[in-house]
Amino acid sequence: MQKLLPRKASQNQSFDKAIPIILRPLFRAYILGYTSSAGPRLLTLFLVHLSRRRKNIDPRPEGEDHFWSSLVGILKGGLEFQRFPTFCAALIPLREVFKRLLEIVPVTTQLRLTRYLSTFISAYFSLQLLQSRPSKTFTEDLLYETKNGIESRPTRFAGRTLDLTLFAFTRAIDCIVGELWAKHKSRRQASRKWSRLDKTISSLTDPTLFASSCALIMWAFIYTPARLPRAYNKWIQSAAQVDSRLLKALRYCRYGELKYGVETGQAHLLGNMCKDYGLPEEYGDPTKSIPFPCELVHMGSGPNCEFHAVSRFYKSFIWSASMYLPLNLALLLRTPKISTKSLIHAFKSSARSSAFLSTFITLFYYGICLTRTRLGPHILGTSAHACQAIDSGYGIGTGCWMCGWSVVLETAKRREEMGLFVAPRALATLLPRRYRWEEQWIERVVFAWGAAVVFTRVGENSNGKGDLSIGVGVDVDIDIGIGVGIDIYGGKIMGGGEGGVEDGDEDEDEDEDEDEDERKGIRKG
């Protein structure tokens, strides 16, 4: 016995030497998982088979063929990727593999990899847990062809956590771009090559991000409102104070249901609107008015586009101030002693935020007027075809692009945060709100990557304050003015946590109540 022990040990050692050291824990865990998974099933199969043969009982017509097919099925099934052996191979030796890998890299890199990998893994499985909850909004009965005919089956769709994923993704991109730009800036300044062009790019990046995001969001609000949460649509419509009949007319122009010079049966839509605003009814008839007078777009503010812009600014400023001033004053109640300086700061912050939002709304409307009346006809012409092109996209596109540049009224810090707040929602308008359930792993990988990048960056930040807002989307030192960026599109941080996801469910439920005309336009878009 004593002579056999060294021989046995040497055999195991020779077997282990055939496998790379770093893969040995993984291999052993896989074998253990495969044995524990397939072993009991094989034992049960053999016992049942022997019992039937001993009793001469074989109710299955295939007899021995069934035994061998079951045997092969058990052996092959354990080798599939989404089975217990793979789980063991990934879970048990993971710590050991990381430890061996990190021994050959510097201590700083070890810490960075540890932060990244731990966050990636936890974020991946956390989102998977969040996605596993059933949702009525993302479940639909679909028709399937079966051997018994066509059957209706409940089918689950993914996309409920898309806002949260895009939030993490945009924050991660911000971390990466910010880090690269900081290194570029330090190198250029060290070599005294920091130019005016570099400074211009640095100052325009955040406003451009905000303006581009707002353009996508406002375009979706006009033409494809189903791509936005219901709360966003309600808030934008409340701030813009736009007649819903005018929105429908714009969508009809976009999708060809309302054409200048052609009787499409839609004259009553804007005709009734003209009656309500005291305008001639023929202003709303596309066969008589080519194009619709801008006075109709002004909704009772007169024919002059500049006067309409001024009146829009005034009304929007009053509306915004009535919202922001109480919020800023309420924030003062957090401190036991209210100073004159803090009170003045609250009024200034409210005025600045109100000016920003009122300018946002004014630029949107005046951009439409510029295209319809001031510049568009001189560039595109006044034919029915040109008017149709202006009212089916060019005018709205100009207003969408102009409105976001009102962010220049805000401070540099606020411009940065507001751009990051609206960017995820803008990306969401480009992606399907629902997709196949089997493709959720892609979203989990994107979310895990984004979260890992953000929290690795936060962990490496020495002061631990400024970049924390990058990780969680909130900076305690930023007053309610930053909330403007949130409130513009829904009054809450969508995707900032599970609450955002749950709210998304309710928004989608309410979207089902939209009228048939709007649905028709959305489908065509």
UniProtKB/TrEMBL annotation:
InterPro entries: Tmem135. Residues 496-525 are annotated as: Disordered. Residues 500-517 have a biased composition (Acidic residues). This is Integral membrane protein. It comes from Sclerotinia borealis (strain F-4128).
